[in-house]
Every structure is written in C-alpha cells, then in structure tokens.
Amino acid sequence: MTESQTDPDLLYVGTYTEGTKSEGVYLVRMDRRSGELRRIGAVNAGANPSFLALHPNRRVLYAVNELDKGVVSACAIQKGIDALTRLNEQPSEGGAPCYVSVDKSGRALLVANYTGGNVALLPIAANGSLAPAHMVQHTGKGPNAKRQEAPHAHCIIPDPSNRFALAADLGADRVFVYGLDIDGKALRPVGEAVMRPGAGSRHIVFHPTLPLVFVANELDSTVATLRFDSTRGALSPLDTRSTLPVGWTGTNYPADIHVASNGRTLYVSNRGHNSIAVFSVAREGALALEEVMSTEGDWPRNFSFDPSGRWLLVANQRSDSVIVFERDPDSGGLTLTKQRIEVPSPVCLRFA
C-alpha cells in the first residue's frame, strides 16, 4: 500500500451540545485497513454544531449552530495538528438550521432552516469566511397537524451541474427547485415537486449517473424516486418504496440517504427501527429492498462512506456511538464489525 492508503483518515463528527456531555465537533481517526476508530479531540464550534459540510478545497469546515436564532460557523482546518480555527459566523436567517452544503465552485454555502421554514445562500469569501445570507421563505403545510403545521425546510443541495439547488421541505411535502445564481448571490425559484401527502420529505441524494433523485421521507418511512430534468430543473415523481421490513409496524422516522459511487446501492437510515435499509438500484433506477441491518444503537442519524468506499459509518445519536459496517463493493451488502467509538450525541459524519 502507498502512504496515503495507510495513513488514518480524519473524520469530523457534528453533535448536539445542549443538554449533553458533548464538547462540540469531535475529531476521529479511522484506519481504513481495519475500520478501527480513535477519538483524538474535540473543538468548540459553537452550540449544537449538528450538521457539517466541507469546502471543496478541504481547508474549511462549516457547521450549522442549531439554535432558535440560527447561525452558521466557518472554521479553518489546521492541517497536521488536527485542529480548527473559527473564521466567522453568520445568521442563517431562520430558526433551527439543520442542513448545510457547499456548491461545487466553493463560492456559496446553502443552509436549510427547519423552524424558519426557509433556505438561504451565504456567499463564501476567498479565505472561506461567510458573508450575509440571501433567504427564500417556503410556504405550504401537510396533513400531519403536529409536524406539518407550517413549512420545515430540512435539506438543500446543489445538483451535479451546479446550476440548480434542490430543497426538501418536511412540513410542506415539497421538493423545491432553485436556480443557483452564484454571481448574483441568490437562489431563484424555478419550480417544485409535490410529494405524497404526509410523506415529510427530509433528505435528498442524486444518482451518480442516471437523471434521478432519491428522497428520504421522514413521516411515512419511504424513499421516493424522481426524474430530474437538468436542462429545465424539473422534477417528476416516479416511484415510492418502504424503508421497513414487511410487517413491521412500530414508530419510525427515516433520516439520512446516500448512494454508492457505482450507483448500484442506495442506503437509508431508520430511526425507531434503528437500522440501515439497503436497496439495490437496477440499471434503469428501480429500487428493491434487499436487507435491513440493525445499527446496534439508538436513533441512527447521518451516516457516511469512508473515502475508500469499503466502510459505512453510522452516528447513533441517542446511544452516543459511531459504529462501522464493512461494505461489499459488488453487492453493496453490509456486515457489522466490532469497530465502534463513543461520541456524545453524534449527528453528522464528514471525512476530511
């Protein structure tokens, strides 16, 4: 193996600090040969640095501070000493920011504000610091009176062309499409896809080669498949599949969703059932539920592939653990390993 293959990979873990023992963003080293995890420190990135994103240049880490008056923090990565230096913070222009991503040019940060029911674009300066936000308010509600009384933006990501941004809204049962105007430092409304009533759209992922978008729906435990027209920014719903085993009837809320780099396997985390649902993806994009694997913990939130794609790591929020599955590179199937580490209230996993 080369030196780059044997050096341990650095993992950042976003957490909730309020009401927990968490010290902020945790730094963990992973040996990609064995999957072994080693906690090496924690950095104060403000209160509740729950969801994280890396700048494309890998020199800046961004964290939402999930508070009633939401904030986004920018932290410079200090290579060689495993540390972060706070650059600045900006208001997210909405309450409880819960998702953050960076466009492919590294010039715009996108944030979803859950209680604010809106999304925002924050320009990124040359040094990685953030400028004030341009906000767009969502509208709409759903049939679930307790959870869908108003819009609740839960995710926003750029499309592969970097011309559009898609935002899932749990409260409105919508996926909103925006033109990504980086030079104009703004999000321009283009259209929307109406999801199944009461679905509660939460997280989005693009298929790596097909013109498809997959949406994890929190409130009805499904994953939806939509066709995405990248020339017009238009979405067309195609199919919906359950994330749960046949016959299981307990309370469950899907959280995160990812597709393997070869496009042949889709994964969704189930909170309540406490599992990872593994779907095969056919050549034309059809999904089939192949297995549902226990995460050996409570309330799996975000999960992540390691840089090699051999391992899948899961953050069990309520049991304060990060666990490791080994992935079969061909079938995408998961095998639970003995590798795990304690981290207080882990939410989000991002490799450097």
Give structural notes.
The protein has 352 residues and is mostly beta strands. It is 1% helix and 55% strand. The chain contains one helix and 28 strands. The chain has one helix spanning 3-6; strands at residues 9-15, 25-30, 37-43, 49-54, 60-65, 71-78, 83-91, 97-102, 108-113, 118-123, 134-137, 153-158, 164-169, 174-181, 186-194, 201-206, 212-217, 222-229, 234-242, 253-259, 265-271, 275-281, 287-294, 300-305, 311-316, 321-327, 334-342, 346-351. Strands 3-2-1-28 form a four-stranded antiparallel sheet, with no helix packed on it. A four-stranded antiparallel sheet has the order 4-5-6-7, with no helix packed on it. The model is unreliable at 1-6 (pLDDT under 50).
Shape: globular
Distance between the termini: 20 Å
In round numbers, the mean pLDDT is: 96
Largest β sheet strand count, sense and barrel closure = 4 strands, antiparallel
Residues in helix, %: under 10%
Please state the structural category.
mainly beta
Number of helices: 1
- Which series of helices and strands comes N to C? HEEEEEEEEEEEEEEEEEEEEEEEEEEEE
The proportion of residues in beta strands is over 45%
Radius of gyration: 19 Å
Q: Which spans of ≥5 residues are poorly predicted at pLDDT below 50?
A: 1-6
* Count of strand segments: 28
What is the topology, as strand order, of the major beta sheet?
3-2-1-28
